[in-house]
Amino acid sequence: MLEIRNLVVDIEDKRILNGLDLTVNTGEVAAIMGPNGSGKSTLSYVIAGKEDYTVVDGEILLDGESILELEPFERAAKGVFLAFQYPLEIPGVGTMTFLKAALNAQRKARGEAELTTPDLMRRVKAAATKLAIDPEMLKRPLNVGFSGGEKKRMEILQMALLEPSLCILDETDSGLDIDALKIVADGVNALRAPDRSSLVITHYQRLLDYIVPDTVHVMANGRVVRSGGKELAIELEANGYADYRQQAA
Ligand code: ADP
Ligand code: MG
After folding, report:
1. Can you tell me which atom of ligand 1 is nearest the CA of 34?
2. Which top CATH class is 2-248?
């Protein structure tokens, strides 16, 4: 599903990703772990197509096709979804309006009919109930005044509605209490499917108690320095990242 080869990325002449290789197979849940500043968010942004980054070398293939030349919305139409580490507040844009626009843009790109408002409402309400999102929140501007946990659940709501083929979650666990963490993990687990892959970025092992990954990759200084199974996350929790900081430096 996702193949990244020798990815080298700069921001303002500063090298952030430094020859990163990563393969995520179709149907797989891959965890990306690593110390703060190792480039995890940068990796997620570069896959999603955020501006400001210069891809100096390397390749990102989605289902064998390069996506580096595609605009963010084109990548989204191909099924790439990023749940932000810090979701933005968008004053003046109603949550429902946003969800409808996002969903219908993708349906249009795939040649599917747009959803009617009643159909949309039904889908959103069903998904919101599963994530314990208060229906009143859906009437407010997107993320405005939401708590940290509510913002993260809103990201997962978007993900559930858009049914992406590649889900990227950037530290969705940060700022969540244990109940919200379980709700979010249930939401992610419900999306597990043979034709869908997930990249779960986390600093801590805790989330991985609830979302059990198929593979774990450790990032340090802008590259993947170790890959393994879920036992690697447990080892990291016990030993920390000190070994990897030294190894990559
Ligand atoms: P992580 O998500 O693993 O904590 P990031 O991808 O956010 O790491 O950041 C990796 C490195 O890139 C850090 O050293 C950070 O300071 C730097 N960095 C990220 N964004 C910018 C930016 N806009 N300008 C300059 N440096 C940046
Ligand atoms: Mg980050």
Report:
1. 3
2. alpha beta
